[in-house]
Amino acid sequence: MTPAPDPVSGPDIAGALPASARSAACATGLACACLFVAMLNLTLVVAGLKELVVDDLGGSVADAALFFTVEMVAYLLFAPLWGALSDRLGRRKPFIVAGFAASGLLYLAYLRIDSIPLLLALRFLQGGAAIAGWSTTMALLFDGADTADTTGAGSRPRLAGFAGASLILGVGLGAPIGGLVTQHWGGRAPLALAGGLFLLLAAAALALRDAPALHSRPRLGEIGRALAARPRLLLPWALYAMERFTVGLFVIVFPLWLLAQHGADPAARGRALAAFLLPFAFLQLGTYRLARRFGPFALLAVGCAGYAAAFAALGRVGSGPYYPLLVALGALAAMIFPPTLALTAEWTAPESRASALAGFNVAGSLGFALGPIAGAWAHQSVGGGGGSFTAAFDLAAAAALAGAVAATVALLRPARRL
């Protein structure tokens, strides 16, 4: 006699997943893997930035900050272009494959660079290629929610959690791996590793499939009008810009603080960054459940307020234990990214989704570009010749507090159309 299916696990859990479900799971996994590797490459060079820019190429701390800022400027300029073209053509895969392949080749070209201006010029081009790959991957991921069901409402928060975890896990692992690679093989070794990984990623992205056509292919003017008709998108975009501003400030200022305060070597700096970035990544896998239970704005209000308090405390810890604060910062940051991404996907029509997510990434890139500059300004403007790291961390705390106020206003006025 054939046993009855287990009422708890069911036949799907036992391994009899429908072909469509297996295909969707594989597509989601591959898209998340693309996001993970793209972000891993972004931070491979962070822990060894001094060795690459200052020691190897003879640059300054300002040049090291520009290495990231230039890439964010490229994101600002190229993300809307790739998003609009992807929506206009109704295709995602060509932009993903070409973007990752070009980025890999440009990373390998870094190996022959012998001047700061040429390094920054290539960084700009490489940033424009990279954003074509991973921003369009995000659009493809959420296209799958429309394929799975007509509203996508049930799966978008979950996909936002997966996307956020993939992105931040890549960022978190890139720092310690890059620190070890730099310590053993020098400041240029992470560039070679990133170039090879991007080329492998481009090859893997060939297995991605564009979602079935669910909507028309609008003209570029129609895409712009569709986004202009949804001003409430400015709220998640602004909150994401705040979160990226604080992270951009942190990943540049904090390693310098570690070096000045504790004399940390590249590997130690990478481990400390991981103490922030890994909780930031893994806890996003459960954030979507909190967002569905309490609502996105409650989660954002609490997360931003706690995030502000943790930054203010970090600026005053001095030579005391700082690892608990890093873990707290990562846990609280995990409450910010997934709700903003899910709100952007939810509040956008399918035919303009790549453009809306490009706008989302433009806002984040703007925040990330301004963060290091603002942090350096706050550090140098306060505290005399020695600078003040406390002022830089307080600036991050003030930005997070502004985000908490905005989320609280949205929470208390739910009936008003944002």
Number of helices: 17
Structural class: mainly alpha
Strand content: under 5%
Mean pLDDT level: 82
- Major beta-sheet overview: none
- Provide the gyration radius in Å: 21 Å
Helix content: over 70%
Question: What is the tally of beta strands?
Answer: 0
Q: Span between N and C termini? A: 59 Å
Shape: globular
Low-pLDDT residue intervals, each spanning 5 or more residues: 1-16, 150-154
Order of helices and strands: HHHHHHHHHHHHHHHHH
Q: Main attributes?
A:
418 residues, mainly alpha, disordered N terminus
Question: What's the helix and strand layout?
Answer:
Layout (H helix, E strand, L loop, with lengths): L9 H4 L5 H25 L5 H8 L4 H29 L3 H17 L6 H33 L7 H30 L3 H17 L14 H9 L5 H29 L3 H17 L1 H11 L1 H19 L8 H11 L3 H10 L6 H29 L7 H24 L6
3D architecture notes:
With 418 residues, the protein is mainly α. It is 77% helix and 0% strand. It is built from 17 helices and no strands. The longest helix is centred in the first third of the chain and has 33 residues, at 116-148. The chain is globular, with a radius of gyration of 21 Å. The model is unreliable at 1-16 and 150-154 (pLDDT under 50).
Q: Could you provide a short overview of the structure?
A:
The protein has 418 residues and is an all-alpha fold. The chain is 77% helix and 0% strand.
